[in-house]
Amino acid sequence: MRIFEPHIHCYSRTTDDYERMALAGIEGVCEPAFWLGQPRTHVATFKDYFDTLLGWERHRAAQFGIRHYCTMGLNPKEANDDRLNDDVLALVREYVHKDGVIAVGEIGYDDITPTEERILQEQIQIAIEARKPILIHTPHRDKTGGVKRTLDVVRESGIEPSMVLVDHNTEMTIPMVKETGYYAGFSIYPNTKMTPERMVEIFRRFGTDRMIINSAADWGISDPLLVPKTVQVMRKAGMDEDEIEKVVWGNPIGFFAQSGQIAFSDFDRDRSIDRTRLHAGNSVLRGQKP
Ligand SMILES: [Zn+2]
Q1: Runs of H (alpha helix) within 55-195
Q2: Among 72, 76, 140, 168, which is disulfide-ready with 95 (CB 3.0 to 4.6 Å)?
Q3: Are 69 and 114 in contact (CB under 8 A)?
Q4: Distance 287 CA to ligand 1 centre (A)
Q5: Ligand 1 centre distance from Cα of residue 8 (Å)
Q6: How far is 287 from 290, CA to CA, in rounded Å?
Q7: Cα of 185 to ligand 1 centre, how many Å?
Q8: What percent of the chain has a predicted confidence (pLDDT) above 90?
Q9: How far, in Å, from the CA of 264 to the mean position of ligand 1?
Q10: Dist. CA 9 → ligand 1 center (Å)
Q11: Where are the strands (E) in 59-151, listed by range?
């Protein structure tokens, strides 16, 4: 089974994770720009972070045979910081055009403040102008209210429905999102929120069209193997191999391909691994022999 992991924050993960992901069949990842736990206080630290996603992290993933893509955006949490939000938006406007950037995201609501709403609206416009899809984060508190409000803002923006992926859905929100024609993402977590078993039940009720699953693994308690683990549960439940591959390969790559920065054929190219390769003079070997 070929797997594309559409939402993982590799920046916070180790080389062991990359190795295990590659062994489990993950051939490509999308790393959305997000917050780092520690609030940033300067726009320049965003710039360095964005450059890391485009440079070092892509290089690091390649050393394990994994193709790395990313999204650019100001996350909802830090959108509230008036010392830097407008300057970061200017950066997003510039970085969205770089090679390997497959969407604007993750954007959306956290605490559902007026500032978050303004930044969300502006970033949707950036995406429309740049002809990129959007990756929408939905809030973990007041999930249903937050999703409702998000869908209103997205609809009013006039963006093409096929260009929208609404993430972190649950049984409560999927009926609403399904109706819109947007793509729906589900983050599978080790303990809470969404489990592989509940996910299978959602596929049974709502089908697999425009459905995408991810681990959303980051610096918190999370598991970068939850997409391949969910594949196993889908198989145990008797789901068709074609249906499974649609969810973990066809749907996510098909969605992000609308950016013009990723294609199924990317994965047919040479996938040899050469760990002596350098990025800005640095390698993953740290002085070891390959
Ligand atoms: Zn995330």
Answers
A1: 56-62, 76-79, 85-95, 114-130, 143-157, 174-180
A2: 72
A3: no
A4: 32
A5: 6
A6: 9
A7: 11
A8: 88
A9: 23
A10: 7
A11: 67-72, 101-108, 134-137
- The conformation of residue 276, written as its DSSP 8-state character, comes to T
How many domains does the chain contain in total?
1
CATH of the domain at 166: 3.20.20.140
> Which domain, by its residues, includes 186?
3-268
User: What is the value of pTM for the model shown?
Assistant: 0.95
Assess if residue 182 is contained within a domain. yes
The span from the CA of 89 to the CA of 254, in Å, is: 27
Task: Give me ligand 1 centre to Cα 286, in Å.
Answer: 29
CA of 137 to the centre of ligand 1 (A): 7
CA of 217 to the centre of ligand 1 (A): 7
Q: What distance in angstroms lies between residue 276's CA and the mean position of ligand 1's atoms? A: 31
User: Residue 43 carries which DSSP code?
Assistant: H
pLDDT in tens, the chain (290 residues): 999 999 999 999 999 999 999 999 999 999 999 999 999 999 999 999 999 999 999 999 999 999 999 999 999 999 999 999 999 999 999 999 999 999 999 999 999 999 999 999 999 999 999 999 999 999 988 889 999 999 999 999 999 999 999 999 999 999 999 999 999 999 998 887 789 999 999 999 999 999 999 999 999 989 999 999 999 999 999 999 999 999 999 999 999 999 999 999 999 977 778 878 888 888 888 778 77
Is 283 within the bounds of a domain? Answer: no
* Ligand 1 centroid to residue 136 C-alpha, Å: 10
Output the CA 290–ligand 1 centroid distance in Å.
Answer: 32
In angstroms, the CA 272 to CA 73 distance is 31
Whether 285 is covered by a domain: the verdict is no
> How many Å lie between the centroid of ligand 1 and the Cα of residue 228?
18
> For residues 45 and 36, is the Cβ–Cβ distance under 8 A?
no
191 falls within a domain: yes
Q: Ligand 1 centroid to 233 CA: how many Å?
A: 23
Rounded to whole angstroms, the Cα distance separating 34 from 195 reads: 23
